[in-house]
Amino acid sequence: MFGLFKSKSNEINTPVNGEVVELKEVSDPVFGEKMMGEGFAVKPSDGKICSPVKGTIKSVFPSLHALTLKAEDGLDVLIHIGLDTVELNGEGFSSSIQEGQKVKAGDPLVQVDLAFLAEKNKDNIVIVVFPEMKDKEVSVHLGEKQVGEVAAILK
């Protein structure tokens, strides 16, 4: 009746300005073949990584190349910045976020120096996956997006 009882879909925003692409475009098979779960990736045009959801920071890797969020609705969101960037031991990354911190969609999380990644021959793709997601489909909105624009809808 008037859509009141339809299953709710979740909007996931773009975490960084750039081109939203399918996971299959990620050259690392762990992400490209969806071994870590469904999601999308962004070819960034800048290094300001923001929260794609409202929720809580669950964990932050010491190297700042990856973090997990728990969205308000319970969805786990993993953001992985670049490929093989863990090898940089945090060089080129900065952040003041902490585990347990509440965030809104669009709040800054990590700053990454894209020129530094290029200098170190590291792919700068930003990957967003939902490792614990069950019983939902992901509809990815491809193309150029700005932080805060919808990149994916979970149904």
TrEMBL record:
Domain PTS EIIA type-1: 28-132
Keyword Iron-sulfur: no
Chief location: cytoplasm
Keywords carried by this UniProt record: Kinase, Phosphotransferase system, Sugar transport, Transferase, Transport
Coiled-coil intervals, chain numbering: none
Places the protein is found: Cytoplasm
Keyword Transferase recorded: yes
One Pfam family it belongs to: PTS_EIIA_1
PANTHER family with a match to the protein in the record: PTS SYSTEM GLUCOSE-SPECIFIC EIIA COMPONENT
Database matches in NCBIfam families: PTBA (TIGR00830)
The name this protein goes by in its record: PTS glucose transporter subunit IIA
Organism: Enterococcus hulanensis
